[in-house]
Specification:
It is globular and about 60 Å long. The C terminus is likely disordered. The longest helix has 13 residues. Strands 3-2-1-4-5-6 form a 6-stranded parallel beta sheet, sandwiched between helices. By secondary structure, it is of the alpha/beta class.
Length: about 280
């Protein structure tokens, strides 16, 4: 407040456009927060609530069985194939991992994700590390891992190419993020680690949630809004974050179940994992 005369916030520019339209008395069909939160009262799950809100506000019915789907372009699939070949992992089972999240309170400690990656690699797999521009998390994870040479850091690439690389993976392990929804939309099983947010609202269809087993009066179970701790950027019950309660073994087991269900390849028998 003392350093700036004016702050221009492009994140909320769309709100200004909406307000102008309202002042013009334009008819607006809006699936905004209020409509979606009202739909949550009657429909379990965030996607079901969004479908219901779309029907209420726009009059458009969405098939309840329709899974999220992201179409992939041939050029991006070619990039993914070439990228994996260039990094020597073209024929290996792949698991995507990502330490990033929109809030520190939603980030599982990086050393624990590195421990999960080590367990995955010990079963003769390889990991793709997705961090985008947030390179600090990538460097920390590689430093914590015992098998950094078996972790391929993807780096900054276009989101279409991120989706193509995700489609080559057997699973994604990470926090409650947009990447989680991208993976689900290209048919990749998700193991999502949740802290202050609620899997019942945000977990994509078919995903496996591993959650903090802590009762918190500030966690929002009937709203799409972020929890109060995320808004305040601090835990409101005196912890660093409830996500710290999530156990490495539980996340590892969830990933192993996905890998064991894959068609039996040579790597699985040699790793000595259950049939």
């Amino acid at each position: 407040q003392e350093s700036f005369d004016v702050i221009l916030d492009p994140n909320h520019a769309v709100i200004a456009v909406r307000d102008v339209l309202w002042e013009q008395h334009t008819r607006i069909l809006d699936t905004g927060k209020d409509t979606q939160n009202a739909a949550l009262e009657d429909h379990p799950g965030g996607i079901a609530a969004i479908h219901a809100a779309t029907l209420r506000a726009w009059g458009l019915a969405v098939c309840s069985q329709a899974p999220p789907h992201l179409s992939l372009q041939a050029s991006d699939l070619h990039f993914a194939k070439q990228f994996l070949s260039d990094n020597g992992v073209g024929n290996m089972p792949l698991v995507a991992i990502s330490p990033v999240a929109s809030s520190p309170l939603k980030r599982w400690p990086v050393d624990r994700l590195a421990a999960v990656a080590d367990c995955i690699i010990e079963e003769n797999s390889c990991c793709l590390l997705f961090c985008g521009p947030q390179s600090d998390g990538a460097a920390e994870l590689l430093n914590e891992s015992r098998y950094a040479d078996r972790i391929v850091w993807v780096g900054r690439i276009h989101l279409r190419r991120v989706a193509a690389l995700l489609s080559s993976c057997a699973a994604l392990v990470g926090n409650d993020t947009g990447l989680m929804h991208m993976a689900a939309a290209v048919g990749v099983p998700v193991v999502a680690i949740f802290g202050p947010t609620v899997p019942a609202i945000y977990l994509p269809p078919g995903g496996k949630a591993v959650s903090a087993n802590i009762d918190c009066p500030y966690r929002k179970t009937k709203e799409f809004d972020p929890p109060n701790c995320v808004i305040a950027n601090r835990c409101l019950i005196g912890r660093r974050s409830c996500i710290d309660e999530v156990d490495v073994a539980e996340v590892t087991r969830a990933v192993q179940v996905i890998l064991w269900r894959m068609p039996r390849p040579i790597w699985r028998a040699s790793a000595g994992t259950p049939a």
